[in-house]
Amino acid sequence: MSSNGSRLRHELAQEAGRILLDEGIRDFGLAKRKAAEHLGVDARHDMPANIEIQDAALERSRLFATDESRQAYRDRLAAALQVMQRLSHLEPRLVGPLLTGMIERFPVINLHGFAETVEEVLIDLADRGIHCETGERRYRSRQGREQRVPFIAFRGPDDTEVELTIFPLDGIRQAPPSPVDGKPMARAGAGEVERLLTEGREAERL
Q1: pLDDT greater at residue 206 or residue 5
Q2: Where are the compositionally biased (Basic and acidic residues) regions (predicted)?
Q3: Is the pLDDT of residue 202 over 60?
């Protein structure tokens, strides 16, 4: 790749990373297309890989973080822990940008939960007076097959947006491939999230 091509690929990754952070877009493909449009580049150009875009977003997140945004991130992490503790029977796992430490403008708490059926989870949430909306996510298995998995969206503590994806009970053994790098998605249980919060408070006191 020429130096000009390499520089343009870097600029596309930086712009797509900014779009992920600032516009609340979750789809890497859409972020790439918008980045190409903003930079006046043919969308068929050699685009950066998803991992390059995530790295750019993380770098930008840390570079432009303020005391206020860092506190908002810690508050969101604490809200995630509260939801996980309340839904402990689903053995929830935190996934996504919040787990990576990314400070977003429009953050969402992304959780994986495990149950025999999504209906039993909906009934449980309804009994708690929690209004829910449902949808489906598409994941690819390690064998490359597309899998549709239901998710439930609702509001958590402090009106935080929560998206809880429901996997079968045995889904806890193997995380689906990450859209970022194709490796099993990183997941964290409540104990790990609590440790992240403790480390954040200790670092703040230094």
Answers
A1: 5
A2: 192-206
A3: no
